[in-house]
Design brief:
heterodimer; A: mainly alpha; 23 helices; B: Porin; 2 helices
Amino acid sequence: MKKILLLLIATSFAAPGISLAQRQNNKARPALRKAAPATASRSSNTRVATLKNQLSDALRMAQSGQYDSAANNLFSLSRRPELANERPQVKYILGTMLIELKLYQTAAFQFVDVIRSNHPKYAKLAIEKLSVVADALGDDTILNYAISRVDLNDFPANLKDMIHYRLGEIKLRNRDFSGAAALFSRVSFGSSTYYQALFNKGLAELEANQTSLAVGTFNKMLDARRRAPVTDTNKVAAQMGLARALYQKQDWEAAIEAYAQVPRDTLMWHDAVFESSWAMLRAARFRSALSNFQTLHSAYYEDFYMPESLLLRSIVYLYICKYDEMEKVLSLFEKTYGPVRRKIGDFLKSTNEAGAYYTEVERAHVLKTTDRNANLRLPYIVVRNILDQGDVKRAMTYIEKLNNEKNRIESNSAFRSSPLGQYAMKIISNRSRNAKFAVGDMAKAHLQNMRVELRDLYEQAGFIRYEMITGRKDSIKKKIAGKDIATEQIDDKIDRQFYIQNGYEYYPFQGEFWLDEVGNYHYLGKQSCE
Amino acid sequence: MLKNGFIAVAIIVSALLLHKAAFAAEVVELPKEELAQESVLPVFDKPVSVKNRNVTTAGRWDMDVFYGYAMTEPIANVSKFGIGIYYNTSENHAFGLFFANNASGLSDYARQIERTPATPLDLSKAPMPKNTIMGDYNLKAFYGKMSVTKSLVLNTVLFGSGSVGVVQYEHKTYPAVAIGLGQKFYFNRNWAMRFDMRLYANQGPVPFLAGSKMHNGTARPSYSEFSERVLFSTNLDIGLSYLF
């Protein structure tokens, strides 16, 4: 990296050197014509010579690894009006120095300035660098700015994969699914974004309802990650993608099988359990679905926002005519999500500022990641759910990177008090504030969606309750007629020894939840329909 | 509203069509692929091993009655009966006090020695322990559960204990310390069976005297004639505990 940097600096300074000499000659010529202001010409020559010396000094510092001193000198030179023509070069080199100092956000601003200057040589180079820096920061705004100015033909081959991937992301966001899939396909094997591109390709195919293609894509991804560890993120994401594709293809049994392959010790497992319950319902495997609900509605999930799972459970109970259980679940739904719905509504009504929404998200983040307490105006399950949304997660990561950059500057007091340090702090502070407002806006949008979702689910709960009452009425009629079915369990006739001999434990459930049991609960009740 | 209504109606109609077929297809035995295949634990933000415990002890008192068996006591009666009271400051710590009264007489082993014709000893001349009173600290290290039958599960608490107190002999009271390991088996949320294994160390009289002073028919020696040293004994206590 250092060698590349030195080469870059050396080649970059060849041009300023010539340029300065040309300026010197250009200035010298009129001086010859107008012999009179000889003093002024001498003064100009001295200034230019001084600037040349300063540039040389900065170069030497960079060569010797004194990036902060070099960057400071380049920063002051970039502001000199005498060097207006050389500014893109100086800023470009300043940007590369800042990358070395891991001050990516400050570097990004230098590259944006260079791109705006439309310098024939450095603007293109700056787009490349800006793409790399924005990719490292995960900042969509800068990334979109860089990519909007990209001409793929001008890009070095090693960066094309990243650009294809990012362009694919933009197309996916704009719901151009075939375009997105085509761009993701162009990301080559071996690229750092290859697996993400493959996953997003599958996602784009699913969005375009090309389920067979998506199944093929996720299988390809799984095959490529065959030797990776069991909990490898890409491998698990591919497995999850495959299960979802099979579900969308309405191949319920295959989807259940694919969901079951998602490893338990990964974060995606929780989603897999819930989604496989839908597949089980569709495959008419009600007992299996109810086993999953025992896990999903355990005390371990009290911080999870899953209103739909409660309604799904009540529907399964309706299928098997367990009206008392259904009543309990519907009551639990109303007891849990009634206050949630009210609080979301109140918060949305009383709060407009993005900053207030961000504060809630930030407090929930503290609660989630530390043992500290924080007072929330919204229920924790709501804000925790918002924190888990992809856009919020990504923006929070960006804010964290800005904080790291800020800490890096503050840890070097000499650099912190330099003009470049102060400038960098100002940039970071502004970006951080704007990013927080953006997170606030995202949170507000998610809250609005949740409010709508809860309203719809409440309506569905009303319909389900109506069916429950009808079913219960019929059940009572049958009971009176002596046609009711006695309560029993599916394993009533199986001895406990059966489980022990097969290497399994048998624990009657008494309301206590154990971490090692989560995912291993089995509903043993039988259906109560005639 | 109308859309949701259609969704709900569709679900309910399919429910009515499916429910018979669904349970007709249901196997009585649990499908093997649904039984536990993995030994790893799910990932949560702040993982804890148990939630919604059946037996919660924090801020509660518990009271014990127990029978103690001195496993390594050679001379004195090995049985004692006691009572203890504990306050649980949290799910991890409890502080309490227990009192045990030793049964009088000699151990079976001492009686066997006395019956041996070659050793005409009267070991009852030695000073015997009468009572023990100790302050006890319990560190509740593990809360667990144990499946006993198809319909019975016991909660368990494994704890370490450390005690400081006194052992009262017939003539004198000596300081004592004990460390141990215990286990409680809860039958329900209040009642438990408590087992304590403790190693006691206390200053006490050596129950032997040189010469014929301990022989049958001789005068009872004065307690001051018995030398003193640190005595070690291992005790197993078995008792019932009630959590208030």
